[in-house]
Each structure stands twice: as C-alpha cells, then as structure tokens.
Amino acid sequence: MNFDQFNLDSRLQVGINKAGYETPTPIQVQAIPLALQGMDIIGTAQTGPGKTPAFVLPILNRLLTNQKKQTRALIITPTRELAEQIHQEFRLFSIGTGIRSTTVYGGVGANPQVHALRSKVEIVVACPGRLLDLIQKGDANLQNIEMLVLDEADRMLDMGFLPDVKRILKNIPNKRQTMLFSATFPKEIESLAKQTLQNPKRVSIGLARPAHTVSHSLYPVPKHLKTKLLIALLRETKFKSVLVFTRTKHRAQKLSKQIGNLGYRTTSLHSNRTQNQRQSALRGFKSGQSQIMVATDIAARGLDIESISHVVNYDIPDTADAYIHRIGRTGRAERTGKAFTFVTDDDDAMVRTIEKIMDQKLPRLFLEEFDYAVPKPKGQPNQKFRRNGNYNRTRPKNNNNRSHRSNKPKKSFSKSGKQNQNPPKKQ
User: Fold this and answer.
1) Do 156 and 224 belong to one domain?
2) Distance CA 84, CA 87 (A)
3) How far is CA 399 from the centre of its chain?
4) In the chain, which end has fewer C-beta atoms inside a 10 angstrom radius, N or C?
5) In this structure, are 197 and 302 located in the same domain?
6) 97 in a domain, yes or no?
C-alpha cells in the first residue's frame, strides 16, 4: 500500500515526499481512512513512529477542501516538546498550501501566541494550561473548531491536566470530529472518551511494548556507584547518541555536568530549563552537536529522534508504562537500539512488573572491569547489594558487553587489561 490509495489532496504529496514517506505505517493504514470519513477515533497507540501523521494528514486534507481564514483544528498535548514536534509536522506536510499553524504553551511570552490566534491561524497545537488561560482572558476564540485531537491523553491525566482539558472542551462546539490517542486507558480516560466522542471507531496499534529492534539489559549496581557505572559503560560502549533518564530534574542537571566534565558533549532536558533552553538542547541533540542528553520523563513521550542508539535508565521508572515510553526513544524506524537499566535491590518489584509486560526475562549484566566493592562514602547508610541474588541468575548471550565469570569482587582494570595503579577519582 502507498499514500496514493488514501486519495489525499494532491498538494499534500509535496510534504509526504519531503518527509520520505513511501509506505504507510500500521497506525496510518488503520486511522487515516476513518479520519478522512470524519469519524471520531479512539486510538490505542504504542510508542513508535507514524502516529502524528495519522491525524495531521486528514486534518490538512479537510482544511484544503474548503479553506477559510478561521481556527478550525485544535490539538491538545501534554508537553511543549510534543507540541513543537506536532507543529513541525503540520508545517512539513502543508508546504505550499498556505495553511498556517501555531503553538500555544507556557514558559514563553504569551504575546506572539495571542497575535497568531488573532490572525486566525487554521491550526492550533496547545498545552492545556496556557490555552485555558488565553481562553479565560478572551484571547483565544475556539468557536469555529471542527476537528479536535487529544494526544497522549493518559500522560495529560498523569500530569494533572484533565480538569483543564474538560474546561477547554466547554468552549468548543459539540459538533466536531474528535480523535483521542492514548497508550493506556485508565478509567478516567475511558470516562473522558465517553463524554467527548460520538460513536467512535477504535484503532489498536500493536502491543504496548518497545520495538523488536531494541535489546534490553539490566545492570545491578549499588546506588552510590550508579554514576561510576554510567561512566564506565560510556567508555566501553560504541554509541551514536545516548539518552539518559533520571527521576529528578536536579539529578539530571548534576549528572549532565559530571559527564560533560569528562569531555563528552552533553546537554540536559528538564522542567527547570527555560523553553528556549529546552528547544536549544533538543536541536543540539538531534543534530549531533550533543552526544548525550540527560533528561527526566519530560523526554519520554513524543520526541521523534531516529538517531538515538542507546537509552540508559539511570533511575528505573516508576511504572512499566513509563519504561515502555522511555525505551521507545530508541530502535525507531527499524533501526537497532540498546536499552540499559540500572537496578538496585529496591527495584525488584518494578523489574518483575517490566518483565511481565515484556513477557521475557531480561538479562542481568556485570561489567568485568568494574569494581562493585567500592564502599559507600562515610555518613551514608549502608545498603545491601546481592551479587548472588536475583540479578546474577541469567547471563547474556552474544552481547558486546562482557559479564562477570565469577561472583568474586574484581579489581579495577584499564581498557588495555592492565591493573590500574591509580584508581579513578570519585565522581
């Protein structure tokens, strides 16, 4: 199947060709024909490429059938980064059509956004908080909305945006086409779908698990040696670009600086950075200017960077769903990718949950040249680290990283195999 079979407006073919699209992805095959018919859609969509064009192309096609200088399409999404990505896809596919889109989100000045809205751009891609604020101030008129997309609905629930979304919906005409996409469907999202959509068609896109091109490994490690292990892995691994996930923004910032001090080109992405800083970080990482990005879960969803070769969970995520989304940043577009997850003895329960969802036992790896017996700095409570426990039961096969052959503590060695006379300084 090719895109010609969708009978899209011929003017959209320029953008499709520029994007390098030839064969529609499964989500596009299922969703685009329904969307072109004007049907409401509930999409259960796993992390992976192709979801955004599944609603962008039908929206543009409809706008081209009867162009008006009105705001007719609204996409609500949880993060600024995802809003910018969707906006860029609209710009790409609408080349030469005269259709305009804009973004609306916090963290930047509102005046340019207000100006764009008053100029009656056809498409608005917005985060709930800023959009609701502009509605309440009378700066956003959504009375002509014909198409509504709620993207990453479960993420909006997790971030506490659902009340804002419901308030926004009160300012949109009831007669409209609505598409809702979500990786999971907790009761709150199911309830939202029932209230918001009319006779929706359900589209299910694959299993909620990472692409088959991703290999997964667990690295058991005491908490106080996580940074040392990360540095050791970076030195031993051939990588193109690495995305490192931490649980907190402070740790992301600190870790980025620590790695950068070793000569790696690093950047960070978290909520303490300004919008300009976040966009600059993304551009640098996407272009290859930065080799390593250290981020919180703000980067786990929606970011489409095909070149990421490795994802490292410095901190294991709080949910299995978050693991799926994090790991989904690599192995995209049929490229291979590797996922490394650092685990401590406190992470047993989450490891079991992840393995259950993945339907496989994940290999436990130990770096042969890494000293796991380094004591914790004075003043910090002692922690158990089970070398003979759950994390040493499975040894990997055909893996580039070498595992321990015994449970005896190893001395620290250089890459040449010679024993280090001067052990590395504490990071």
Assistant:
1) no
2) 5
3) 26
4) N
5) no
6) yes
Q: Are residues 97 and 123 in the same domain?
A: yes
pLDDT tens string, the chain, 427 residues long: the values are 788 889 999 999 889 988 878 788 888 999 999 999 999 999 886 555 578 999 999 999 999 998 888 999 999 999 998 999 999 999 999 999 999 999 999 989 999 999 999 998 999 999 999 999 999 999 999 999 999 999 989 889 888 999 999 999 999 999 999 999 987 788 899 999 999 999 999 987 654 556 577 889 999 999 999 999 999 999 998 888 999 999 998 999 999 999 999 999 999 998 888 888 888 988 899 888 999 999 988 766 656 677 788 999 999 988 777 788 788 777 665 577 899 999 998 898 889 888 877 778 899 999 988 999 888 887 665 555 555 444 433 333 334 444 333 333 333 333 333 333 343 333 3
CA dist 241 and 293 (Å) reads 8
Do 14 and 44 lie in one domain? The reply is: yes
Question: Are 15 and 152 part of one and the same domain?
Answer: yes
- The answer to whether position 425 is within a domain reads no
Instruction: State the CATH number of the domain containing residue 111.
Output: 3.40.50.300
Q: Which two tokens stand for residue 389?
A: 């426990």
Residue ranges making up the domain that contains 336: 214-392
